[in-house]
Design a protein that fits this description.
Elements lengths: L14 H13 L4 H5 L5 H7 L5 H4 L4 E8 L6 E18 L4 E10 L2 E6 L10 H13 L7 H16 L4 H14 L1 H4 L3 H14 L1
Antiparallel strand pairs: 1-2, 2-3, 3-4
Helix pairs in contact: 7-9
Length: 202
């Protein structure tokens, strides 16, 4: 599938042009594609939610949250939201594991808290984006600039490409074990070996 974090820059001309292009690039109006680079979906959550720093890095990212089925069309309805904060509440099942992390999100002035399992891996659509921007305008909140979105995108890329140290692996295992003792037979050593192997292929 499409992975916004793997995108190579489309622009690899000489350094002089690069600077000009970069300035021109950030002065345009931000579009849905800029926000999609910061989209956090279920797969990202499943891979990174126990990493140290996850609860901070997702702040200021965006999501496409499942808000139920449209009775008229029978289609699943999604809303584009901004992730403001991670709340720690009652553990729930994310499919293959349990966690107690919930996303506190906004759309304009509206605030809600969702389980992370409600966040789609699909791209935010133009229609969802327009509705989100309308909500910002209605709440007199200015739309983020391309410059700000690009900076956040760089932080996100740095987070996912940071090499795994033993210390990080220990923290991930410890975080996982909090709610997933049953899954791992409480054998932390085994869990760590499995996790290390998994991460090599991830």
């Amino acid at each position: 599938g499409y992975n916004p974090l793997n995108r190579k820059s489309r622009y690899t001309e000489t350094a002089g042009d690069e600077v000009e292009w970069a300035e021109e690039e950030t002065s345009r109006d931000s579009e849905v594609s800029d926000f999609n680079k910061l989209r956090i979906g279920r797969s990202f959550v499943a891979k990174f939610c126990f990493y140290p720093g996850f609860n901070d890095i997702v702040k200021g990212c965006y999501g496409r949250v499942n808000v139920g089925v449209d009775k008229r069309t029978g289609q699943t309805n999604y809303r584009m939201v901004k992730i403001e904060k991670v709340f720690l509440q009652k553990p729930y099942n994310m499919g293959k594991f349990y966690t107690n992390q919930y996303f506190g999100v906004t759309q304009g002035k509206d605030r809600k808290v969702f389980q992370m399992s409600f966040f789609s891996d699909g791209l935010i659509t133009q229609q969802e984006f327009e509705r989100y921007i309308k909500a910002l305008e209605g709440s007199h909140i200015s739309k983020p600039t391309v410059h700000n979105l690009n900076n956040k995108s760089k932080e996100l890329v740095a987070f996912v490409s940071e090499p795994l140290t033993d210390k990080t692996t220990d923290t991930i295992v410890k975080n996982r074990m909090l709610f997933n003792k049953k899954l791992s037979g409480t054998n932390a050593v085994l869990e760590k070996t499995v996790l290390k192997e998994k991460l090599q292929y991830a």
